[in-house]
């Protein structure tokens, strides 16, 4: 049954669609032309356009990819019209980049701005709410930098590129902080049984608590705590 299906299959239509085999040579030529056009375009954009993609630059790259990709294999799309689209995108990029460099407000409107997510070993919760960033994802980013608890971090900033910049306390200045190892937040305490440092699971605020102390966090007003850690960062 399978062999009959394979024998009756229109292999030409499967492999080439409605085009003739001779179109393969044209595809090779179209691809070579557009490949060179991409290289020229990226050289015009400069290193910033390649290495540090902001939201605006990502849109530009997607636009360039679409303009370059379609004529490589689509017979109905002319190369000249695609090259015109390509260089219009580059022209618009150059004009907008000029205004970005000249007007700070325009840059922030178009690209956003860096956001402080951790300050003095605790979440900057007002800023954290603005970002579409899950705590598990954020903790994973920190663990990749050797962080096991928030008291090791003086400041963490989400850059406009989406990358996280982390600035650490020196070992002698490491504070008690919220542990961020896997599963560390799964069993918050319902009752404080001994004097110790405890961290709020919501905002990372750390304070000394005594047995029976179930007061809400003074920073976020939540009431879930786990033992804090003052472990130093291993580098």
Helix and strand arrangement:
Layout: H1 2-8, H2 11-16, H3 23-45, H4 47-51, H5 55-73, H6 79-102, H7 104-111, E1 115-119, E2 122-123, H8 125-130, H9 135-143, E3 153-158, E4 164-168, E5 196-200, E6 206-209, E7 225-227
Antiparallel strand pairs: 1-2, 1-3, 3-4, 5-6, 5-7
Query: How many strands, which pairing sense, and closed or not: the largest β-sheet?
Result: 4 strands, antiparallel
Distance from first to last alpha carbon = 62 Å
H and E order: HHHHHHHEEHHEEEEE
Instruction: Give the DSSP E fraction (strand runs of 2 or more residues).
Output: 5-15%
Strands of the widest sheet, in order across it, are 2-1-3-4
- Average pLDDT level: 79
Percentage of residues in helical conformation: 40-55%
How would you describe the shape?
elongated
Number of beta-strand segments: 7
Structure description:
The protein has 235 residues and is α+β, with helices and mostly antiparallel strands. The chain has helices at 2-8, 11-16, 23-45, 47-51, 55-73, 79-102, 104-111, 125-130, 135-143, and strands at residues 115-119, 122-123, 153-158, 164-168, 196-200, 206-209, 225-227. It has nine helices and seven strands, in the order H-H-H-H-H-H-H-E-E-H-H-E-E-E-E-E. Strands 2-1-3-4 form a four-stranded antiparallel sheet. A three-stranded antiparallel sheet has the order 6-5-7, with no helix packed on it.
Keywords summarizing the entry:
235 residues; 3-stranded antiparallel sheet; 7 strands; 13% strand; elongated
């Amino acid at each position: 049954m399978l062999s009959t299906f394979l024998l009756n299959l229109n292999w030409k239509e499967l492999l080439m669609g409605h085009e003739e085999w001779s179109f393969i040579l044209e595809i090779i030529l179209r691809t070579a032309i557009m490949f060179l056009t991409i290289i020229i375009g990226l050289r015009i954009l400069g290193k910033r356009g390649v290495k540090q993609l902001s939201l605006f630059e990502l849109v530009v790259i997607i636009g360039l990819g679409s303009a370059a990709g379609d004529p490589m294999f689509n017979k109905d799309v002319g190369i000249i019209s695609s090259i015109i689209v390509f260089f219009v995108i580059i022209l618009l990029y150059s004009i907008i980049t000029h205004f970005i460099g000249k007007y700070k407000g325009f840059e922030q409107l178009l690209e956003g701005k860096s956001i402080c997510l951790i300050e003095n070993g605790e979440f900057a919760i007002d800023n954290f709410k603005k970002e579409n960033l899950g705590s598990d994802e954020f903790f994973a980013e920190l663990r990749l930098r050797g962080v096991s608890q928030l008291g090791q971090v003086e400041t963490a900033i989400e850059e406009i590129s989406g990358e996280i910049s982390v600035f650490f306390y020196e070992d002698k200045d490491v504070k008690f902080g919220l542990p961020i190892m896997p599963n560390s937040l799964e069993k918050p305490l319902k009752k404080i049984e001994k004097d110790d440092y405890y961290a709020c699971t919501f905002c990372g605020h750390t304070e000394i608590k005594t047995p029976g102390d179930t007061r809400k966090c003074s920073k976020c007003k939540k009431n879930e705590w786990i033992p804090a850690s003052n472990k130093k960062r291993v580098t």
